[in-house]
Amino acid sequence: MSGKNLHLTIIGEFFPDVSPVFRSRKWARGEEDPLTTEMRLFSACLRWSYKRILNGLSRTEIKKQGQDLFGLNSRYVDDARLKAQGMIDAQKELLELEIETTEAKLRRARKKLAWAMKKRSRAEKKSLPEGEIQTLDRTVLGRQARVSVLEKRLKELREHKENGTAPTVIFGGRKLWRNVCKGKATRDEWRAARKNRLYARGDSTKGGNPNMKIAFDGREFRLAVTLSHLSEPVGVDRLGRPIMSRAPRVLGRLWIPEKHRARLLGWLTEKRAYTVELIRGLDGRFRVHIALELDDHPETDFSRGVLAVDINPDGACMANVSSRGLPEPWPRGFQVSAPKNLGKYDGEFQIVPYPSGFLYIRVPELAYASGFRRRYLIGVLAKAVVDIAKALGKPIALEALGFSKGRMDTEKPFNRMASQFPYAAIRMAILRRAVKENVGYKQVPPQHTSTIGRLKYEKKYGVSVHCAAALVIGRRAMGFRERITREVRDFVLRVKERLKPTGDLLPREGIGMTRKVEAALHRLEPRLGLHNGLARWQQESFFSCWRELKIFALTFR
Questions:
Q1: With the C-alpha atoms ordered 167, 172, 173, 176, is the resulting torsion angle positive or negative?
Q2: Strand order through the sheet with 286-294
Q3: What CA–CA distances, in Å, run from 321 to 63, 302, 329, 394?
Q4: pLDDT tens digits for range 62-102
Q5: CA-CA distance, 246 to 242, in Å (whole number)?
Q6: Coiled coil where (predicted)?
Q7: Residue 101 pLDDT
């Protein structure tokens, strides 16, 4: 995690049943009800605050002017400013990453353009048919256009960084606006998406949340939403500030999923802060997002070992690691129960156990499912992983892995894999579930875990490379070093034997030294004997000898 506290978001639904019978002549528009008016005013204040922050207006000035312009109370205006500031901060944080990604894309696009131009030049010298030359001309033009687009994009990003500004934001959603431009969505849908939110941050000193208050009446949850634009001035205080009448509220039933009711009820009893965001959909229903800040990090105790998890596109491999850093057999009678609410078809949730303490939970549909189905399957997988760790009484070890987008848009196979691999979603689901269940966790660097697993543990324990990588993750989380063993040295000797010249000039599969393998071998030989004496961080670094061993493992697998 990035040092920020995890949040549990509970999604419910609001059914307003008690609303003020009068409307504001000043702020209401058409036949809209008071709650819709409050949401429209807040959304407008959010967009206005975003522009004012970019223009350098202070918080005090935004709060003072915002109350006069939109008729909202001070807390609503400050919440709108806070949400706008968060959007700007997120844009600036992503700016550095976008510049780095675009530079990587541009370098690769220029390289591919040079290859295309070189190929076009050779074709002209060889006097190839006109049709082939025209095809190469189109390729060159396409890659020139790609380079031009990336150069323009990189220039814009660098200008934003130099000027301290943020890239353009489309309120209502960029995707929806593009659909409007293509005629796939109406402008009314886009306008509705720009004025469909009301946000109120929590405050423990005010009983949890003063503007959107949740209560429990003994049978069901209730929500009271403050309509601040209906408040009217009734006087002036000694500092000259207007004194406003008590704002009316919209009251209604709040539906909460059964699994979250006990936690939310305990939260309300302790009067802890909770943030509420009310969202009105195109169907007229009011969804409620309740965010609870989980600031208690579960303790990570490795005295009994760890459950190491290697996440894959179609599931997760697990290794039950003992306190000595070795795979530990599953306890007698240990079983992983399949979720009861699955069962669309046989093999939807596959559990593949290994007697030596490894386990592979495979969900084939996870690799290609989309939308709500994928999120649901990720939640099912995360629950299964955390339940296993809880049953064993061990913390969870994961890789802090991330896919760079530097190669995106240039290699179709990688694009397809990276876009379909929901690694971040699975990892965050496991971490959130672990926090909720009070199960400890630790994230480790991902460098060379698969290479080490393949060379040291795959054949030794008779498991797949992913299960072997999970063992490496667990050992790394517990602080064990990965030394160069006799098996690894024997593998290097076999590589040397296979690379010896045979006298046959014709290339054959797996025989013959390529320049890449030869260079890797020259770099590896003087460092192989020094590896075991290095510090642990040096052994795990990207430029350790495992980098060259990875080239051998991929070349001669």
A1: negative
A2: 197-200, 275-280, 286-294, 6-18, 249-255, 221-226, 212-216
A3: 55, 10, 9, 9
A4: 998 999 899 999 999 999 999 999 999 888 888 888 898 89
A5: 13
A6: 87-126
A7: 86
Among residues 282, 224, 273, 276, which one has the least CA distance to residue 253?
A: 224
The C-alpha atoms of residue 428 and residue 382 are separated, in whole angstroms, by: 9
- DSSP per-residue letters across 286-302: EEEEEEEEE--PPP---
Map tokens 């302790």 to a residue: 270
Tell me the pLDDT tens digit for each residue of 328-361. 998 888 887 777 766 666 778 888 888 789 999 9
CB-side exposure of 178: number of CA atoms within 13 Å? Answer: 3
Cα 386 from chain centre: 19
CB 256 within 8 A of CB 216: no
Cα of 348 vs its chain's centroid, Å: 25
β partners of residue 236: 242
Bridge partners, residue 198, by sequence: 278
Give CA angle at 374 (368, 378), nearest 5°. 115
What letters, b where the CB count within 10 A reaches 16 and e where it falls short, cover 359-376? bbbbbbbbbebeeeebee
pLDDT band at 1 (very low <50, low <70, confident <90, very high): very low
Q: What is the pLDDT of residue 406?
A: 44
Length of the chain: 557
User: Mean pLDDT lowest for which of 15-29, 122-136, 415-429, 433-447?
Assistant: 415-429
Q: Which tokens in the block code for residue 383?
A: 């629950």
* CA nearest neighbour of 9 among 265, 297, 289: 289
Distance in angstroms between the alpha carbons of the first and the last residue of the chain = 35
